[in-house]
Amino acid sequence: MDVIDRANDLSDWLLAKQLAAQTGHRPAGDSRADCLECGEPIPEARRVALPGVTLCVHCQTLMEKRR
Ligand SMILES: [Zn+2]
Q1: How far away, in angstroms, is 16 Cα from ligand 1 center?
Q2: Terminal-to-terminal C-alpha distance of the chain
């Protein structure tokens, strides 16, 4: 990877970050490190498998049962 590619990647990343801040939306793939409901840490494997995941397995299961 050369310097120009790196610069483009960086500006893309900054743009996405600014856009996310403006719209209040988190960019896709930005998973939470801990559960939105109970605060338990979400395993990295789960975050990789489900980009943008915000709940641990336990809370996700409860949420699905509520539907
Ligand atoms: Zn949870």
Answers
A1: 28
A2: 47
Question: For residue 38, what are the domain limits?
Answer: 31-67
Query: Residue 10 belongs to what H/E stretch?
Result: helix 3-23
Same structural domain for residues 42 and 66?
A: yes
What is the CA(32)–ligand 1 centre distance, in A?
11
Mean pLDDT confidence for 32-42? 92
66 vs 3: CA distance, rounded Å: 50
Residues within 5 A (CB) of ion ligand 1: 35, 37-38, 40, 56, 59
Higher pLDDT, 35 or 3: 35
DSSP assignment, residue 67? -
